[in-house]
Write a structure and sequence with these properties.
single chain; 411 residues; alpha+beta; Alpha-Beta Plaits; four-stranded antiparallel sheet; 11 helices; 33% helix; elongated; disordered C terminus
């Protein structure tokens, strides 16, 4: 069941068991998660998820249970434990990254090499189950990408293995700083974000991955409960699972400029002359659109499509020929089909044709010239030229010649 993206909403912080609980609440299959966790060569643990309420909001408490684990493991010991477990590659990589981040910041805080850092709370068995269980749940849900909101932290002091520490703990602050996570301090002495929760964010969320809920189609939501009740606020971590919106293809075409002017006092003759002048000034195309202007006056929009380098030149001609006091220009992109120009022979007269995928079109000026020479209607010459190209390709005369015009159109 591929979810694609997981976004952790840490409005009340995050811990290892809150992250795991939120993913179980969102639908991660407990048996599959347990199957991966049991690959760890350690005993004395269990997971018993429990439905709870936090400030009236239904959530799941992960319920990690540990039995008499007093081992304070080094990072090297945890690294070996993970390697021996033969976990799926992504579960192993994500779990190892979380513990490596912890080892590096603890090493700086205690001035020891990361491999020699003795984890206390985060090296205990419940923290190992929280971290590996969270990474296993992400794998079960098929989460490829992790994002997160700003991270709430508490204040005051908290008790740790070394005694009283500031809240948030030094390791938590260092890990959030390393991750580039925006933080939000709240006036509560509860340790909202723990070092384990911060380590998971630092390992899972890529650079620039913190912010509001990204553009996605939600498929599931889960709430992982903390152990404490906080008055007035649900002490939970929310996770939203979803699939990213399909990226719309970016169409890149030829950059052009559209030069326009609104005109309400020009005659039809003047407007027709303006179109010709605009084409002579370098416009690729020009047209006139009837509009209703202010006070109900009828008017026209004179438009010209041109290369941006010629926009000023075309705008000057438009202003001069229409008498408009203002000319506007906008940039556009033309997504033109591939085309080429060929030439066919119709009754001894050369007629150019424009060829594009699935279509051939005679140049009307050439067809009109050939019609005058051959004494035939221009529309017949157009049809003969296009049929000649389809039958014989460019440059070859049409053996039927002008004496074999197409039958008249019905109607």
């Amino acid at each position: 069941m591929t979810r694609g993206t997981a976004w952790f909403h840490c409005f009340s912080g995050i811990s290892g068991d809150m992250a795991l609980g939120s993913l179980l609440d969102a639908g991660a299959d407990l048996d599959e998660v347990l199957g991966l966790l049991r690959r760890l060569k350690v005993a004395g643990w269990s997971i018993e998820p429990e439905p709870v309420l936090r400030a009236g909001l239904a959530a799941t408490q992960a319920g990690v249970r540990i039995h008499d684990d007093q081992v304070h493991r080094t990072f090297s010991a945890i690294e070996a434990l993970l390697a021996e477990a033969a976990l799926p590659a992504r579960v192993h990589e994500r779990s190892l990254a979380a513990f490596l981040g912890l080892a590096e910041v603890e090493g700086v805080l205690h001035r020891r090499p990361p491999a020699q850092v003795h984890f206390h709370e985060v090296g205990s068995l419940d923290a190992i189950v929280d971290v590996v269980g969270t990474c296993a749940a992400l794998e079960v849900l098929g989460v490829d990408e992790v994002r997160a909101s700003a991270v709430a932290t508490g204040t005051g002091m908290v008790r740790a293995a070394h005694g009283l520490l500031p809240n948030p703990a030094p390791a938590t602050v260092a890990l959030l700083a390393r991750a580039g996570a925006p933080t939000l301090g709240r006036n509560t002495t509860v340790e909202l974000t723990t070092p384990t929760g911060a380590a998971l964010l630092a390992a899972l969320v890529p650079p620039g991955g913190f912010g509001p809920l990204p553009a996605l189609v939600p498929t599931a939501v889960g709430y992982g409960a903390g152990t404490r009740q906080i008055d007035g606020t649900p002490n939970v971590t929310q996770v939203v699972l979803g699939t990213p919106e399909e990226e719309r293809p970016v169409l890149e075409g030829q950059p052009l400029a559209v030069v326009e002017a609104n005109v309400d006092d020009a005659t039809g003759e003047a407007l027709g002359h303006a179109l010709g002048a605009l084409l002579e000034a370098g416009a690729a195309d020009a047209w006139i659109t009837p509009v209703t202007m202010k006070k109900g006056r009828p008017g026209h929009v004179v438009s010209a499509l041109c290369d941006p380098a010629l926009a000023a030149q075309v705008a000057a001609v438009m202003a001069a020929e229409t008498g408009s006091l203002g000319v506007r220009s906008t940039r556009v992109e033309r997504l033109a089909a591939e085309r080429r120009f060929d030439q066919v022979d119709v009754g001894g007269v050369a007629v150019r044709v424009k060829v594009s995928p699935g279509r051939v079109k005679a140049e009307f000026d050439d067809a009109a010239r050939a019609a005058r020479v051959l004494g035939r209607p221009a529309r017949e010459i157009v049809q003969l030229a296009e049929e000649a190209w389809r039958r014989h390709g460019p440059g070859r005369p049409d053996p039927a010649g002008p004496a074999s015009p197409p039958p008249p159109e019905a109607g």
